[in-house]
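Page 47, continued from p. 46.
Same chain as before, 389 aa.
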Amino acid sequence: MRRAETVNALTCRKEDFRLEPGVHFLNCAYLGPISRRTEEAGIAGLARKRSPTDFPARAFYDDCDRLRERFAALIGGAARHVAILPSVSYGIATAARNLPLGKGRDVVLLGEQFPSNVYVWRRRADEEDARVRVVPRPGPPPCGARWNERILDAIDADTAVVALAPTHWTDGTRFDVAAIGARAREVGAAFVLDGSQSVGAVPLDVGDVKPDALVCAGYKWLLGPYGIALAHFGERFDHGVPLEETWIAREGSEDFRGLVDYEEGYAEGAVRFDVGERSDFIHVPMMIAALEQLLEWGPPRIRDYCVSLLSGVADAVRERGWPVEDDAWRGGNILGIGLPPDRDPGALQRRLEDARVYASLRGSSLRVSPNVYNDAADIDALAEVVLGR
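Result:
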């Protein structure tokens, strides 16, 4: 199959992972594998807890500080704005708690948006007698350009919050979050992003996009462990109210002897939004190791590597007339292949499983999501099953 003719400085990094031989794992949008480096960091963290005699109070803080710095570097933000969370839904709920809607006003969402960024807005709209305004997909792919236009049209003087994702989770459709964010600011609306399906593999600079909140799961494209998420809360949240009142988020909490002198003031920045027991001695070091590896590879190079892998199969799908988004309106790390009516999704899933090819059926698309551990052989195995080549 023809490959993209671009030159990529980044080469396949399969050796940095422990994927099972003979498996074609094209499903990072479902569950990203951890690298050898990240695995080793987790094992070392587990060993520290095995015998915690040499465990100073600073150990509850230092790795968390490093984690904030690494995530801020990845997204072009400031460490003081980074919060350590257990999940995306926790981060979106934190944002929703601190963003007033108002009677008769709107929350603008994408059609078929991931539930973590939907349910909480429905509840908040009910509480404040506001409305949820869903912008549906305007038709089968390619429709990315029209979808983006309709989102911009939906944001008006009645909009209180715009909550969406840079890349649609079902098929990789790209949304121009810089333009959407600018439109939200123009009408005074808050802008909340779920970056779980792009950040890490696709460049995103919060200084350019200016979201009020960006929340990312750790276990997908950040290639970290399950059970940790990271958020960047902008200045709109500087005086916000957290979901829980943790001791470690208070000013002066480093002085353990003084914890009996209760402090009402929060530590500076987004620390107030951290989850309780945020100083996880296994997850935090693993997440640091994963982010350091991503920073070495670089999201622009990771995206370009994924694009080079997917370009040939995308062209082959187009030649058959199957629905697929235009290259300009895909994030680059995910390819959604619209299945023709005569293709039985269940039968296709069984064929993929038999060939040990891992991809996901999401909505009406077969979602293919490679990463740096994949190579041409993985894409060829996919094409053999899906296209019969």
